[in-house]
Each structure stands twice: as structure tokens, then as C-alpha cells.
Amino acid sequence: MSVSDQIMKGLLDGAILGLISQGETYGYEITKKLEDHNFPDISEGSIYPVLLRLSKKGYVSTRMVKSDTGGPKRKYYSISETGREELKIFKDKWEKLNSGMNSLVRGE
After folding, report:
1. Which of 67, 78, 102, 105 has its CA 20 to 30 A from that of 4?
2. Residue 103: what pLDDT?
3. Which residues have a Cβ under 8 Å from the Cβ of 18 and sit 6 or more positions away?
4. Stretch (H or E) spanning 80
5. Other CB atoms closer than 10 Å to residue 101's CB: what's the count?
6. Using CA atoms, how far apart are residues 91 and 93, in angstroms rounded to an integer?
7. Alpha helices in 22-80 (DSSP H)
């Protein structure tokens, strides 16, 4: 796994929590929203392990919803209070890391 892949894997938890905090959503929709926010090369296959991990940690809750088109049920995700706390921690760490990286890249 390349360094950029490892970095992206580490950022996905926070990015996905951030998206879910904006409102209940499902896996495919998360993939599309990440693409809309210019996340590179995010596949549905990389999203679902993150969602499972976030669910196991209690950061998100799920509910199954019957499809309007007669297809399979869709799993919707919403953020829990514990998830909101974790997202705040992530944002604080990201702000510090981002500031430090920008300083280094600019040669300050």
C-alpha cells in the first residue's frame, strides 16, 4: 500500500463521519458525495469497511429501508452522539495537522 493510500485510508473515517453528520445517508450516496468533494479514486468497496468499522465503534447507527423500486433494502447511516464527539476530535486534530503541513510545504 502506497503512502498516499495509507493517508487516504486514515482520512476516510473523518470524512465519512463528516458527511453522515450532515444528515442520514447510505453507502452509494456517500461515495458520490466524496467524489463531488474531489476525493480521488474512492470506490464503494472502500466505503463499506469504513462504515462497518464506524458502526462497530458506535459512531454511527443504521436502519434498513425498503426500496421504492422493489429492489433490495438500503442501509441508512446516521451519526450518534459518540460519533459527533469523535468527529470533533478528528476536526481538531485535522486543523492542527493541516496547519503544520501547510507551513512545511510553504517553507515557513
Report:
1. 78
2. 87
3. 87, 90, 91
4. none
5. 10
6. 5
7. 27-36, 44-56
Check if the beta carbon of residue 48 is closer than 8 Å to that of residue 66: no
Report the sign of the C-alpha dihedral through residues 80, 85, 88, 92, in that order: negative
The answer to whether the pTM exceeds 0.90 is: no
Please name every residue paired with 77 in a beta bridge, in sequence order, or none if there are none: 25, 62
The sheet carrying 74-79 orders its strands as 25-26, 74-79, 60-65
The whole-number average pLDDT for the span 55-73 is: 91
Contact present, 27 and 65 (Cβ < 8 Å): no
In this structure, what C-alpha cell is assigned to residue 47? 466505503
Buried b (16+ CB within 10 A) or exposed e, 77-99: bebbeebeebbeebeeeeeeeee
Percent of the chain residues past pLDDT 70, beyond the cut? 94
Domains defined for the chain, CATH in brackets: 3-106 (1.10.10.10)
Q: At what angle do helices 27-36 and 3-21 cross, to 10 degrees?
A: 110
